[in-house]
Amino acid sequence: MLKGTYDVVIAGTDLPALVFGALAAKKGYRVLVLGHGGKENAYEVDGYRFVRRPNLLCGFSDSNPIREVFRELALAPEMRNLPRPMTPSCHVVLPDARVELTHIRDILDREIEREYAGRLPAFRDFTDRLVEVEKALEPLLRDTPTLPPGTIKEYLSFRRYRKGVAPLLAGTGTDALAPFAGDPRLRTLLAAPVAAMSGLARPWETPLPFIRLANHLLRGLYHVEWGDDALKALFLARIRGNSGDVRPGDRVDMLVVSRGTIREVEIQARNESVGAGMLVAGSDLGALLDLVPSAHAKRRYRTKVARRTPSHYGITLNIGTHRSVIPEGMAQIAFLVADPAAPLEGENLLTLQVDPAMEPLEARDPDRVVLSVTGWLPADRFDGEAATLQAFADRMLEGARRLIPFLGSRPTTLSVSSIETSPKTGLPVVDPAGLIPVYPDAVPRSLDLMTWPVRTPYRNLLNLGDCAAGALGFEGAFLSAFMAFNVLRARIPLKTVM
Protein backbone atom coordinates (compact mmCIF):
# COMPACT_ATOMS: atom_id res chain seq x y z
CA MET A 1 0.00 0.00 0.00
CA LEU A 2 1.48 3.36 -1.07
CA LYS A 3 1.40 5.62 1.97
CA GLY A 4 3.13 8.71 0.72
CA THR A 5 5.67 10.09 -1.71
CA TYR A 6 8.95 11.77 -0.87
CA ASP A 7 11.35 13.74 -3.00
CA VAL A 8 14.25 11.99 -1.27
CA VAL A 9 14.35 8.65 0.53
CA ILE A 10 17.60 7.87 2.36
CA ALA A 11 18.35 4.25 3.31
CA GLY A 12 21.03 4.33 6.00
CA THR A 13 22.60 6.84 8.33
CA ASP A 14 26.17 7.28 7.12
CA LEU A 15 27.41 10.86 7.48
CA PRO A 16 27.48 11.89 3.77
CA ALA A 17 23.85 10.84 3.35
CA LEU A 18 22.67 12.75 6.42
CA VAL A 19 24.52 15.92 5.40
CA PHE A 20 22.87 15.65 1.98
CA GLY A 21 19.45 15.01 3.56
CA ALA A 22 19.74 18.08 5.78
CA LEU A 23 20.68 20.26 2.78
CA ALA A 24 17.76 18.90 0.76
CA ALA A 25 15.23 19.35 3.56
CA LYS A 26 16.42 22.92 4.20
CA LYS A 27 15.79 23.79 0.54
CA GLY A 28 12.24 22.46 0.62
CA TYR A 29 12.57 18.86 -0.54
CA ARG A 30 10.49 16.34 1.36
CA VAL A 31 12.96 13.88 2.92
CA LEU A 32 12.53 10.47 4.58
CA VAL A 33 15.39 8.79 6.44
CA LEU A 34 15.18 5.06 7.11
CA GLY A 35 17.70 3.72 9.64
CA HIS A 36 18.18 0.63 7.45
CA GLY A 37 20.13 -1.16 10.18
CA GLY A 38 22.59 1.66 10.84
CA LYS A 39 24.24 1.87 14.25
CA GLU A 40 25.63 4.73 16.28
CA ASN A 41 29.38 5.01 16.47
CA ALA A 42 29.42 4.79 20.28
CA TYR A 43 28.21 1.76 22.21
CA GLU A 44 28.44 0.74 25.86
CA VAL A 45 30.04 -2.27 27.55
CA ASP A 46 30.39 -2.57 31.33
CA GLY A 47 29.74 1.15 31.70
CA TYR A 48 32.48 2.12 29.22
CA ARG A 49 31.62 4.11 26.09
CA PHE A 50 33.36 2.37 23.20
CA VAL A 51 33.46 3.34 19.51
CA ARG A 52 33.27 1.52 16.21
CA ARG A 53 35.68 3.87 14.44
CA PRO A 54 37.98 6.70 15.57
CA ASN A 55 36.80 10.30 15.49
CA LEU A 56 39.40 12.07 13.32
CA LEU A 57 37.68 15.41 12.78
CA CYS A 58 39.33 18.20 10.84
CA GLY A 59 38.68 21.17 8.59
CA PHE A 60 36.19 23.16 10.66
CA SER A 61 38.23 26.33 10.29
CA ASP A 62 39.58 25.92 6.75
CA SER A 63 37.22 23.69 4.75
CA ASN A 64 34.83 25.51 2.46
CA PRO A 65 32.47 22.50 2.08
CA ILE A 66 32.18 22.11 5.86
CA ARG A 67 31.69 25.83 6.48
CA GLU A 68 29.11 26.04 3.69
CA VAL A 69 27.07 23.15 5.10
CA PHE A 70 26.88 24.82 8.49
CA ARG A 71 26.03 28.16 6.86
CA GLU A 72 23.32 26.69 4.61
CA LEU A 73 21.74 24.95 7.59
CA ALA A 74 21.87 28.09 9.77
CA LEU A 75 24.19 26.37 12.23
CA ALA A 76 26.54 29.30 12.82
CA PRO A 77 26.27 29.07 16.65
CA GLU A 78 27.07 25.35 16.52
CA MET A 79 30.03 26.06 14.23
CA ARG A 80 31.39 28.51 16.80
CA ASN A 81 30.76 26.42 19.91
CA LEU A 82 30.79 22.76 18.88
CA PRO A 83 34.31 22.10 17.47
CA ARG A 84 37.27 22.88 19.71
CA PRO A 85 40.89 22.60 18.51
CA MET A 86 42.87 19.89 20.28
CA THR A 87 46.06 21.06 21.98
CA PRO A 88 48.28 19.30 21.18
CA SER A 89 46.60 18.14 17.99
CA CYS A 90 48.18 14.69 18.14
CA HIS A 91 51.40 12.74 18.70
CA VAL A 92 53.30 10.75 16.09
CA VAL A 93 55.30 8.04 17.83
CA LEU A 94 58.16 6.24 16.09
CA PRO A 95 60.60 3.75 17.63
CA ASP A 96 63.12 6.55 18.29
CA ALA A 97 60.98 9.69 18.25
CA ARG A 98 57.83 11.19 19.69
CA VAL A 99 56.67 14.34 17.93
CA GLU A 100 53.87 16.65 19.04
CA LEU A 101 51.98 18.02 16.05
CA THR A 102 50.37 21.36 16.76
CA HIS A 103 49.08 24.37 14.86
CA ILE A 104 51.36 26.57 16.97
CA ARG A 105 54.33 27.07 14.65
CA ASP A 106 57.00 27.81 17.25
CA ILE A 107 56.22 24.68 19.23
CA LEU A 108 56.17 22.51 16.11
CA ASP A 109 59.50 23.97 14.95
CA ARG A 110 61.08 23.06 18.27
CA GLU A 111 59.66 19.54 18.03
CA ILE A 112 61.09 19.05 14.53
CA GLU A 113 64.49 20.43 15.48
CA ARG A 114 64.65 18.21 18.55
CA GLU A 115 63.74 14.94 16.82
CA TYR A 116 65.10 15.69 13.32
CA ALA A 117 68.19 17.78 13.95
CA GLY A 118 69.08 19.96 10.97
CA ARG A 119 65.95 19.04 8.98
CA LEU A 120 63.72 21.96 10.01
CA PRO A 121 64.46 24.07 6.87
CA ALA A 122 63.57 21.16 4.58
CA PHE A 123 60.40 20.48 6.57
CA ARG A 124 59.36 24.14 6.44
CA ASP A 125 60.07 24.38 2.70
CA PHE A 126 57.86 21.34 2.18
CA THR A 127 54.95 22.56 4.32
CA ASP A 128 55.08 26.00 2.69
CA ARG A 129 54.82 24.24 -0.66
CA LEU A 130 51.80 22.30 0.60
CA VAL A 131 50.01 25.56 1.30
CA GLU A 132 50.78 26.91 -2.17
CA VAL A 133 49.50 23.79 -3.92
CA GLU A 134 46.37 23.79 -1.78
CA LYS A 135 45.48 27.28 -3.01
CA ALA A 136 44.92 25.83 -6.47
CA LEU A 137 42.35 23.45 -4.98
CA GLU A 138 40.30 26.21 -3.40
CA PRO A 139 38.21 27.10 -6.49
CA LEU A 140 37.20 23.46 -6.88
CA LEU A 141 36.39 22.98 -3.20
CA ARG A 142 34.46 26.25 -3.20
CA ASP A 143 32.38 25.34 -6.27
CA THR A 144 32.07 21.59 -5.43
CA PRO A 145 31.41 20.41 -8.99
CA THR A 146 30.18 16.85 -9.41
CA LEU A 147 33.06 14.44 -10.00
CA PRO A 148 33.55 12.57 -12.20
CA PRO A 149 31.83 14.84 -14.75
CA GLY A 150 28.71 13.48 -16.40
CA THR A 151 27.66 16.35 -18.69
CA ILE A 152 29.48 18.57 -21.14
CA LYS A 153 29.21 21.52 -18.76
CA GLU A 154 30.64 19.45 -15.90
CA TYR A 155 33.45 18.20 -18.11
CA LEU A 156 34.44 21.72 -19.16
CA SER A 157 34.55 22.73 -15.49
CA PHE A 158 36.65 19.67 -14.67
CA ARG A 159 39.16 20.54 -17.41
CA ARG A 160 39.49 24.05 -16.02
CA TYR A 161 40.20 22.79 -12.50
CA ARG A 162 42.64 20.16 -13.74
CA LYS A 163 44.49 22.79 -15.78
CA GLY A 164 44.75 25.05 -12.72
CA VAL A 165 46.16 22.32 -10.51
CA ALA A 166 48.55 20.60 -12.93
CA PRO A 167 51.40 23.20 -12.95
CA LEU A 168 51.65 23.17 -9.17
CA LEU A 169 52.02 19.38 -9.15
CA ALA A 170 54.87 19.46 -11.65
CA GLY A 171 57.75 17.40 -10.29
CA THR A 172 55.59 15.70 -7.67
CA GLY A 173 54.58 12.82 -9.93
CA THR A 174 52.83 10.13 -7.95
CA ASP A 175 54.72 10.78 -4.71
CA ALA A 176 53.59 13.79 -2.71
CA LEU A 177 56.45 13.09 -0.29
CA ALA A 178 59.15 12.96 -2.99
CA PRO A 179 61.37 15.58 -1.24
CA PHE A 180 61.79 13.11 1.64
CA ALA A 181 62.38 10.03 -0.53
CA GLY A 182 65.53 9.07 1.37
CA ASP A 183 64.25 9.89 4.85
CA PRO A 184 61.54 7.44 5.99
CA ARG A 185 61.49 8.90 9.51
CA LEU A 186 60.54 12.36 8.25
CA ARG A 187 58.17 10.97 5.61
CA THR A 188 56.32 9.03 8.28
CA LEU A 189 55.73 12.15 10.39
CA LEU A 190 53.07 13.26 7.88
CA ALA A 191 52.37 9.97 6.10
CA ALA A 192 51.16 8.11 9.19
CA PRO A 193 48.46 10.60 10.30
CA VAL A 194 47.28 11.19 6.73
CA ALA A 195 47.09 7.42 6.12
CA ALA A 196 44.84 7.09 9.18
CA MET A 197 42.71 10.11 8.20
CA SER A 198 42.21 8.88 4.63
CA GLY A 199 42.31 5.14 5.26
CA LEU A 200 44.83 4.76 2.43
CA ALA A 201 47.98 2.75 3.15
CA ARG A 202 49.93 4.81 0.57
CA PRO A 203 48.19 8.21 0.62
CA TRP A 204 51.15 10.05 -0.92
CA GLU A 205 50.36 8.32 -4.23
CA THR A 206 47.25 10.55 -4.56
CA PRO A 207 48.93 13.96 -4.17
CA LEU A 208 45.92 16.29 -4.08
CA PRO A 209 44.01 14.59 -1.24
CA PHE A 210 47.30 14.01 0.57
CA ILE A 211 48.16 17.70 0.38
CA ARG A 212 44.68 18.69 1.53
CA LEU A 213 44.70 16.34 4.53
CA ALA A 214 48.28 17.24 5.47
CA ASN A 215 47.27 20.91 5.62
CA HIS A 216 44.23 20.02 7.74
CA LEU A 217 46.52 18.06 10.05
CA LEU A 218 48.97 20.92 10.47
CA ARG A 219 46.10 23.30 11.25
CA GLY A 220 44.86 20.94 13.92
CA LEU A 221 42.39 18.16 14.68
CA TYR A 222 39.19 18.94 16.57
CA HIS A 223 37.27 17.74 19.58
CA VAL A 224 33.48 17.66 19.12
CA GLU A 225 31.50 16.46 22.13
CA TRP A 226 30.17 12.98 21.28
CA GLY A 227 32.02 13.15 17.97
CA ASP A 228 30.47 11.65 14.85
CA ASP A 229 27.24 10.74 16.66
CA ALA A 230 26.65 14.37 17.71
CA LEU A 231 27.14 15.59 14.14
CA LYS A 232 24.73 12.98 12.78
CA ALA A 233 22.16 13.97 15.43
CA LEU A 234 22.58 17.61 14.39
CA PHE A 235 21.78 16.84 10.74
CA LEU A 236 18.91 14.53 11.65
CA ALA A 237 17.44 17.33 13.76
CA ARG A 238 17.63 19.67 10.76
CA ILE A 239 15.81 17.10 8.62
CA ARG A 240 13.04 16.77 11.21
CA GLY A 241 12.89 20.52 11.71
CA ASN A 242 12.31 21.09 8.00
CA SER A 243 9.30 18.78 7.67
CA GLY A 244 11.35 15.65 7.02
CA ASP A 245 10.63 12.23 8.55
CA VAL A 246 13.17 10.06 10.38
CA ARG A 247 12.33 6.41 11.05
CA PRO A 248 15.44 4.82 12.60
CA GLY A 249 13.85 1.40 13.14
CA ASP A 250 12.70 0.86 9.53
CA ARG A 251 14.64 -0.60 6.65
CA VAL A 252 14.12 -1.24 2.96
CA ASP A 253 12.68 -4.62 1.96
CA MET A 254 12.29 -4.28 -1.80
CA LEU A 255 12.57 -1.66 -4.54
CA VAL A 256 10.01 -1.16 -7.30
CA VAL A 257 11.85 -0.23 -10.51
CA SER A 258 10.59 0.81 -13.92
CA ARG A 259 12.72 1.82 -16.92
CA GLY A 260 15.84 2.33 -14.87
CA THR A 261 14.09 4.51 -12.30
CA ILE A 262 13.26 3.50 -8.73
CA ARG A 263 9.58 4.29 -8.23
CA GLU A 264 8.75 2.90 -4.81
CA VAL A 265 10.48 1.69 -1.67
CA GLU A 266 8.82 -1.15 0.22
CA ILE A 267 9.36 -1.07 3.99
CA GLN A 268 10.37 -4.31 5.70
CA ALA A 269 7.81 -5.98 8.03
CA ARG A 270 5.15 -3.41 7.11
CA ASN A 271 2.38 -3.38 4.55
CA GLU A 272 3.72 -0.10 3.29
CA SER A 273 5.45 1.42 0.28
CA VAL A 274 6.62 4.99 -0.24
CA GLY A 275 7.21 6.75 -3.51
CA ALA A 276 10.73 8.07 -4.12
CA GLY A 277 11.80 10.89 -6.41
CA MET A 278 15.42 10.14 -5.46
CA LEU A 279 16.75 7.18 -3.49
CA VAL A 280 20.02 7.52 -1.59
CA ALA A 281 22.17 4.60 -0.45
CA GLY A 282 23.29 5.85 2.95
CA SER A 283 25.08 2.61 3.83
CA ASP A 284 26.29 -0.41 1.82
CA LEU A 285 25.47 0.21 -1.84
CA GLY A 286 25.80 -3.45 -2.83
CA ALA A 287 23.29 -4.60 -0.23
CA LEU A 288 20.76 -2.02 -1.48
CA LEU A 289 21.26 -3.09 -5.10
CA ASP A 290 20.40 -6.65 -4.06
CA LEU A 291 16.88 -5.43 -3.27
CA VAL A 292 16.20 -4.57 -6.92
CA PRO A 293 14.00 -7.27 -8.52
CA SER A 294 16.07 -9.44 -10.86
CA ALA A 295 13.94 -8.51 -13.88
CA HIS A 296 14.99 -4.86 -13.49
CA ALA A 297 18.51 -5.29 -12.11
CA LYS A 298 21.44 -3.78 -13.95
CA ARG A 299 23.54 -6.93 -13.63
CA ARG A 300 26.72 -5.55 -15.16
CA TYR A 301 26.72 -2.68 -12.69
CA ARG A 302 25.97 -5.00 -9.76
CA THR A 303 28.90 -7.19 -10.82
CA LYS A 304 31.12 -4.14 -11.10
CA VAL A 305 30.19 -3.05 -7.57
CA ALA A 306 30.82 -6.57 -6.23
CA ARG A 307 34.27 -6.69 -7.85
CA ARG A 308 35.30 -3.36 -6.34
CA THR A 309 36.68 -4.85 -3.16
CA PRO A 310 38.44 -3.04 -0.29
CA SER A 311 42.21 -3.05 0.04
CA HIS A 312 41.98 -2.85 3.86
CA TYR A 313 39.53 -2.95 6.70
CA GLY A 314 39.82 -0.63 9.66
CA ILE A 315 39.49 -2.65 12.87
CA THR A 316 38.99 -0.99 16.27
CA LEU A 317 39.86 -2.53 19.62
CA ASN A 318 38.40 -0.74 22.64
CA ILE A 319 40.05 -0.97 26.04
CA GLY A 320 38.33 0.12 29.22
CA THR A 321 40.76 0.51 32.10
CA HIS A 322 42.00 2.80 34.90
CA ARG A 323 42.95 6.32 33.87
CA SER A 324 46.28 6.06 35.65
CA VAL A 325 47.72 3.84 32.88
CA ILE A 326 47.70 6.72 30.38
CA PRO A 327 51.19 8.30 30.21
CA GLU A 328 51.39 11.86 31.44
CA GLY A 329 51.29 14.38 28.61
CA MET A 330 49.90 11.96 26.02
CA ALA A 331 47.74 13.67 23.40
CA GLN A 332 44.14 12.56 22.98
CA ILE A 333 45.14 11.10 19.60
CA ALA A 334 48.42 9.35 18.82
CA PHE A 335 49.64 7.62 15.67
CA LEU A 336 52.02 4.77 16.49
CA VAL A 337 54.40 3.41 13.84
CA ALA A 338 56.61 0.40 14.58
CA ASP A 339 58.79 0.60 11.45
CA PRO A 340 58.89 3.82 9.35
CA ALA A 341 60.38 1.94 6.41
CA ALA A 342 57.58 -0.66 6.26
CA PRO A 343 54.11 -0.27 4.73
CA LEU A 344 51.66 1.70 6.89
CA GLU A 345 49.20 -1.13 7.40
CA GLY A 346 48.37 -3.93 9.80
CA GLU A 347 49.94 -3.49 13.22
CA ASN A 348 52.58 -1.13 11.81
CA LEU A 349 50.21 1.86 11.98
CA LEU A 350 47.94 2.17 14.98
CA THR A 351 45.65 5.08 15.78
CA LEU A 352 45.25 5.43 19.54
CA GLN A 353 42.54 7.67 20.93
CA VAL A 354 41.89 8.48 24.58
CA ASP A 355 38.19 8.87 25.47
CA PRO A 356 37.30 8.22 21.81
CA ALA A 357 33.55 8.82 22.24
CA MET A 358 34.53 12.42 23.02
CA GLU A 359 32.39 12.80 26.11
CA PRO A 360 32.10 16.29 27.61
CA LEU A 361 34.77 16.92 30.21
CA GLU A 362 32.23 16.98 33.02
CA ALA A 363 30.92 13.54 31.97
CA ARG A 364 34.28 11.76 32.12
CA ASP A 365 35.00 9.36 34.94
CA PRO A 366 38.14 10.56 36.77
CA ASP A 367 39.16 6.96 37.44
CA ARG A 368 38.06 5.06 34.35
CA VAL A 369 39.19 5.67 30.79
CA VAL A 370 38.62 4.21 27.34
CA LEU A 371 41.42 3.79 24.84
CA SER A 372 40.55 2.83 21.26
CA VAL A 373 43.20 1.26 19.02
CA THR A 374 42.53 1.16 15.27
CA GLY A 375 44.65 -0.67 12.71
CA TRP A 376 44.28 -1.30 8.98
CA LEU A 377 44.02 -5.02 8.25
CA PRO A 378 44.91 -5.88 4.62
CA ALA A 379 41.85 -7.38 2.94
CA ASP A 380 43.83 -10.35 1.69
CA ARG A 381 44.50 -11.28 5.33
CA PHE A 382 40.81 -11.25 6.27
CA ASP A 383 38.88 -14.47 5.65
CA GLY A 384 35.56 -13.22 6.99
CA GLU A 385 35.98 -14.99 10.34
CA ALA A 386 35.68 -13.35 13.76
CA ALA A 387 38.71 -15.34 14.94
CA THR A 388 40.89 -13.54 12.40
CA LEU A 389 39.71 -10.16 13.68
CA GLN A 390 40.33 -11.23 17.27
CA ALA A 391 43.88 -12.35 16.45
CA PHE A 392 44.55 -9.00 14.77
CA ALA A 393 43.13 -7.17 17.79
CA ASP A 394 45.45 -9.16 20.07
CA ARG A 395 48.43 -8.02 18.01
CA MET A 396 47.20 -4.42 18.13
CA LEU A 397 47.02 -4.67 21.92
CA GLU A 398 50.65 -5.73 22.03
CA GLY A 399 51.55 -2.82 19.76
CA ALA A 400 49.72 -0.34 21.98
CA ARG A 401 51.79 -1.51 24.93
CA ARG A 402 54.87 -0.02 23.26
CA LEU A 403 53.44 3.40 24.06
CA ILE A 404 51.44 2.47 27.17
CA PRO A 405 53.53 -0.13 29.00
CA PHE A 406 51.16 -0.36 31.97
CA LEU A 407 48.23 -1.33 29.75
CA GLY A 408 46.84 -4.52 31.25
CA SER A 409 48.31 -3.93 34.69
CA ARG A 410 44.82 -2.96 35.86
CA PRO A 411 41.51 -4.79 35.35
CA THR A 412 40.37 -4.11 31.81
CA THR A 413 37.33 -4.56 29.58
CA LEU A 414 38.14 -5.38 25.96
CA SER A 415 35.81 -5.14 22.97
CA VAL A 416 36.48 -5.47 19.24
CA SER A 417 33.83 -3.31 17.57
CA SER A 418 33.61 -5.57 14.51
CA ILE A 419 32.81 -8.70 16.59
CA GLU A 420 29.43 -9.42 18.15
CA THR A 421 27.84 -12.46 19.77
CA SER A 422 25.37 -14.39 17.63
CA PRO A 423 21.96 -14.51 19.37
CA LYS A 424 21.37 -17.93 17.80
CA THR A 425 24.62 -19.75 18.60
CA GLY A 426 26.18 -17.59 21.31
CA LEU A 427 29.43 -17.63 19.31
CA PRO A 428 31.41 -14.59 18.14
CA VAL A 429 30.59 -13.46 14.59
CA VAL A 430 31.62 -10.52 12.43
CA ASP A 431 29.61 -7.31 12.90
CA PRO A 432 29.80 -5.42 9.57
CA ALA A 433 28.93 -2.15 11.32
CA GLY A 434 32.37 -2.22 12.96
CA LEU A 435 34.33 -2.87 9.76
CA ILE A 436 35.74 0.19 8.00
CA PRO A 437 36.29 -0.73 4.33
CA VAL A 438 38.98 1.19 2.46
CA TYR A 439 38.84 1.58 -1.32
CA PRO A 440 42.20 2.85 -2.63
CA ASP A 441 41.55 3.37 -6.34
CA ALA A 442 40.47 6.83 -7.39
CA VAL A 443 37.62 7.23 -9.86
CA PRO A 444 38.85 8.42 -13.29
CA ARG A 445 38.46 12.18 -13.89
CA SER A 446 37.99 12.94 -10.20
CA LEU A 447 41.42 14.52 -9.51
CA ASP A 448 41.95 11.53 -7.16
CA LEU A 449 39.42 13.01 -4.73
CA MET A 450 36.74 10.32 -5.16
CA THR A 451 37.07 6.57 -4.72
CA TRP A 452 33.35 5.90 -5.38
CA PRO A 453 31.16 7.99 -7.70
CA VAL A 454 28.05 9.58 -6.23
CA ARG A 455 25.98 8.84 -9.34
CA THR A 456 24.92 5.35 -10.37
CA PRO A 457 23.48 3.94 -13.63
CA TYR A 458 20.01 4.10 -12.06
CA ARG A 459 18.52 7.47 -12.93
CA ASN A 460 17.51 8.35 -9.40
CA LEU A 461 19.84 6.35 -7.16
CA LEU A 462 22.75 8.12 -5.45
CA ASN A 463 25.59 6.53 -3.50
CA LEU A 464 26.30 8.39 -0.25
CA GLY A 465 27.59 5.75 2.12
CA ASP A 466 30.81 6.43 4.02
CA CYS A 467 32.80 5.10 1.05
CA ALA A 468 31.61 8.12 -0.96
CA ALA A 469 33.79 10.35 1.23
CA GLY A 470 36.75 9.08 -0.78
CA ALA A 471 40.34 9.94 0.03
CA LEU A 472 39.43 13.20 1.82
CA GLY A 473 38.15 11.45 4.94
CA PHE A 474 35.93 13.62 7.14
CA GLU A 475 35.89 16.58 4.73
CA GLY A 476 35.02 14.22 1.88
CA ALA A 477 31.65 13.48 3.49
CA PHE A 478 30.64 17.13 3.06
CA LEU A 479 32.11 17.41 -0.44
CA SER A 480 30.23 14.36 -1.72
CA ALA A 481 27.00 15.60 -0.08
CA PHE A 482 27.22 18.86 -2.03
CA MET A 483 27.94 16.95 -5.24
CA ALA A 484 24.84 14.82 -4.67
CA PHE A 485 22.77 17.93 -3.94
CA ASN A 486 23.81 19.35 -7.32
CA VAL A 487 22.54 16.16 -8.96
CA LEU A 488 19.26 16.39 -7.01
CA ARG A 489 18.63 19.97 -8.09
CA ALA A 490 19.18 19.02 -11.72
CA ARG A 491 16.97 15.95 -11.45
CA ILE A 492 14.16 17.50 -9.38
CA PRO A 493 14.23 21.30 -9.81
CA LEU A 494 13.28 23.24 -6.73
CA LYS A 495 10.46 25.05 -8.51
CA THR A 496 8.56 21.75 -8.80
CA VAL A 497 8.82 21.01 -5.09
CA MET A 498 5.70 21.93 -3.12
Write the layout of secondary structure elements.
Layout (H helix, E strand, L loop, with lengths): L1 E10 L3 H12 L4 E4 L7 E4 L2 E4 L12 H9 L3 H6 L1 E3 L4 E5 L2 E5 L3 H11 L4 H24 L8 H14 L18 H15 L8 H13 L2 E3 L2 H15 L3 E3 L4 E7 L2 E7 L5 E9 L3 H5 L9 H9 L4 E11 L10 E5 L8 E9 L13 E11 L7 H15 L12 E4 L2 E3 L6 E3 L5 E3 L22 E3 L9 H19 L7
Parallel strand pairs: 1-2, 1-12, 2-9, 6-14, 12-21
Antiparallel strand pairs: 3-4, 5-8, 6-7, 10-11, 11-12, 13-16, 13-17, 13-20, 14-15, 15-16, 18-19
Helix pairs in contact: 1-9, 1-13, 5-8, 7-8
- Taking the alpha carbons of the first and last residues, their distance comes to 23 Å
Structural class: alpha+beta
Question: How many E strands?
Answer: 21
> What is the overall shape?
globular
Report the uncertain regions.
none
Name the descriptors.
498 residues; alpha+beta; 8-stranded mixed beta sheet; 7-stranded mixed beta sheet; 21 strands; 34% helix; 23% strand
Summarize the structure.
With 498 residues, the protein is of the alpha+beta class.
Describe the structure.
The protein is of the alpha+beta class. Helix content is 34%, strand content 23%. It contains 13 helices and 21 strands. The protein has helices at 15-26, 64-72, 76-81, 105-115, 120-143, 152-165, 184-198, 207-219, 227-241, 285-289, 299-307, 386-400, 473-491; strands at 2-11, 31-34, 42-45, 48-51, 83-85, 90-94, 97-101, 222-224, 245-247, 252-258, 261-267, 273-281, 312-322, 333-337, 346-354, 368-378, 413-416, 419-421, 428-430, 436-438, 461-463. The strands form five sheets. Strands 6, 7, 13, 14, 15, 16, 17 and 20 form an eight-stranded mixed beta sheet that branches. Helix 1 packs parallel to helix 9 and helix 1 packs across helix 13. The protein is globular and about 65 Å long. The two termini are 23 Å apart.
